[in-house]
Design goal:
The protein is mainly α and 248 residues long. It contains eight helices and no strands.
Length: 248
């Protein structure tokens, strides 16, 4: 079963630098325990305040950094929680404590939908504590989510590629049609120009054959004169008798 509950630490042994160990230790212990009490009562803001006050006196405390991360986590401030858990890792050499911090980092990343990063955090936790059942289960769950995510991304990519190919083909067909339309328009324009030229030539042709009024009258007069001469010749031929050499 998936367990995204984080692990809270009660006060453990603390090391202090450049401060009276008894007085400072008791003060920090009190602040940490007060924070844990508030945390258990689900008063996470109060817990955060106490842990921060403790860190002001002992910034190198693994427990206070770790517990502050828990308080952030419960407030859904996952980036701040991750930062606190990572800080805690630098203040301990204990494998189990580091394993717990990596476990909480994995949960915070999973809550933030950073699945790939959460897988790495769980793996780091198991390297330090291979028998932790919660971490094993959460890693398995995160891996299944990662596969689903990758499959969905691949499916989306395939669909996008398919849509792009379809769009490219559509654009190509559109370009081809536009080119065809341009060619048709050019051919149509050429034919129109050809027809217009032929029509203009046809209109110019009568002008070449057109004669002046004076020339037309001369031709008409000549035709009349020819007709008169022809009539005269015909009349003369009518008056001449037809002869024959035979004596009937």
């Amino acid at each position: 079963m998936l367990n995204l509950n984080i692990r809270i630490l009660a006060f453990a042994a603390l090391s202090f630098l450049f401060a009276p160990p008894i007085i400072l230790g008791q003060n920090v212990r009190s602040l940490n325990n007060s924070g844990v009490d508030s945390y258990k009562k689900q008063q996470f803001v109060d817990a955060e305040v106490n842990f921060k006050k403790g860190l002001e006196k002992s910034r190198e405390s693994y427990e206070l950094n770790y517990n502050l991360g828990d308080a952030y986590y419960k407030q859904q401030r996952y980036d701040e929680a991750i930062n606190s858990f990572q800080n805690s890792l630098t203040h301990t050499e204990d494998g189990i404590l580091k394993s717990n911090a990596f476990y909480n980092i994995g949960n915070s990343l999973l809550k933030s939908q950073k699945i790939k990063e959460s897988v790495e955090a769980y793996k780091n936790s198991l390297k330090l504590n291979p028998n932790d059942k919660d971490t094993k289960y959460n890693l398995s769950y995160a891996l299944s989510l990662l596969k689903q995510q990758q499959d969905q991304q691949q499916q989306n990519k395939n669909q996008n590629d398919k849509n792009q190919d379809k769009q490219d083909k559509k654009d190509q067909n559109k370009d081809d049609q536009q080119d065809q339309n341009k060619n048709d328009q050019k051919d149509q324009q050429k034919q129109q120009n050809k027809d217009q030229t032929a029509q203009q030539d046809k209109l110019k042709q009568p002008e070449k054959d057109k004669i002046s009024k004076e020339e037309a009258e001369r031709i008409l007069e000549a035709l009349k004169n020819n007709e008169k001469d022809l009539q005269k010749k015909l009349r003369k031929k009518v008056g001449i008798p037809i002869t024959t050499d035979k004596d009937w």
